[in-house]
UniProtKB/TrEMBL annotation:
PANTHER family according to UniProt: 3-METHYL-2-OXOBUTANOATE HYDROXYMETHYLTRANSFERASE
Highest classification ranks of the organism: Bacteria, Bacillati, Actinomycetota, Actinomycetes, Streptosporangiales
Binding positions for 3-methyl-2-oxobutanoate per the UniProt entry: D63, S64, D102, K132
One Gene Ontology MF term: magnesium ion binding
Protein's gene: panB
Descriptive protein name: 3-methyl-2-oxobutanoate hydroxymethyltransferase
Main function: Catalyzes the reversible reaction in which hydroxymethyl group from 5,10-methylenetetrahydrofolate is transferred onto alpha-ketoisovalerate to form ketopantoate.
Length: 282
């Protein structure tokens, strides 16, 4: 009686891939397996290392850094030069995660050459593995040019924060007939070669329809539970951000932990308990 080894099962995207970098092929394969996966933002080497070591497969250096790193009230002010050192730090802090760089407002909308220059800078100067840009059919020439140049592109539809002034605020997008427009944008991004698309603040039923209509993965943020993946800003996820949107679940109380640590440190300095003998050199 003969026996044959069963074929090796593909590694799960979350925590898998055998220690090598996650690639766009891994992302596509997870979609084929109906496997959900997590994505987080990251902006520095230390937090990126933690997320990498627990198995988060994709890290986004978001233009949300404008708010959570630089203290602005929107994503619009952040620049390419602001984001490049953050992206490089995240790449250096990781071994396995795919690192996606957000292209900030004003760095790709004008024309194709500008978009290609910006995306190329991120890959060459930071080591990022892909870029993300907001918009649908209006930015298809930029997406096509990047893909043709060998730059993986993640799309972003729905509430696109760089267009917040056009939307009149942070509002749910894609209701009614607008859902047909979003669907058309998603299909156009897929046809242009995008390897995935973020759906932000759209009705769950619409996100589910888009997800089932595309061969590329969808990544939800405020888009219900039927997308292929989910993404959150890490400070929101960890409870460090004072005010968050309805779609955010706080998985920890980092604000409370950090306050308590700072108070304990300050009190021990004031009362002379720190530094103790064990923290001093002889």
């Amino acid at each position: 009686m003969s026996s044959s080894a069963s074929p090796a099962q593909p590694a799960a995207l979350y925590g898998g891939t055998g220690g090598r970098r996650v690639t766009v092929r891994d992302i596509a394969a997870a979609k084929q397996r109906n496997e959900k996966w997590p994505m987080l933002t990251a902006y520095d080497a230390l937090t990126a290392r933690v997320f990498d070591e627990v198995g988060i497969p994709v890290l986004l250096v978001g233009d949300s850094a404008a708010m959570v790193v630089y203290g602005h009230d929107s994503t619009i002010p952040v620049t390419v030069d602001d984001l490049i050192p953050l992206t490089a730090a995240v790449v250096r802090g990781t071994e396995r995660a795919m690192v996606v760089a957000d292209l900030p407002f004003g760095s790709y909308q004008t024309d194709v050459p500008e978009a290609l220059r910006t995306a190329t800078r991120f890959l060459k100067e930071t080591g990022a593995h892909a870029v993300k840009l907001e918009g649908g059919r209006r930015i298809i020439p930029q997406v096509e040019a990047m893909v043709a140049a060998g730059i993986p592109v993640m799309g972003h539809l729905g509430l696109t924060p760089q267009s917040v002034n056009v939307f009149g605020g942070y509002r749910v997008q894609g209701r009614g007939q607008d859902g047909d427009e979003l669907m058309a944008d998603a299909k156009a991004l897929e046809a242009a070669g995008a390897f995935s698309v973020v759906l932000e603040c759209v009705p769950g039923d619409l996100a589910a329809r888009v997800t089932s209509s595309l061969a590329i993965p969808t990544i939800g943020i405020g888009a219900g539970d039927r997308t292929d993946a989910q993404v959150l800003v890490w400070q929101d996820m960890a409870g460090l951000t004072p005010r968050t949107a309805k779609f955010v679940k706080k998985f920890a109380d980092m604000d409370g932990l950090l306050r308590e640590a700072a108070r304990s440190y300050a009190e021990e300095v004031v009362n002379g308990a720190f530094p103790g003998p064990e923290h001093s050199y002889k």
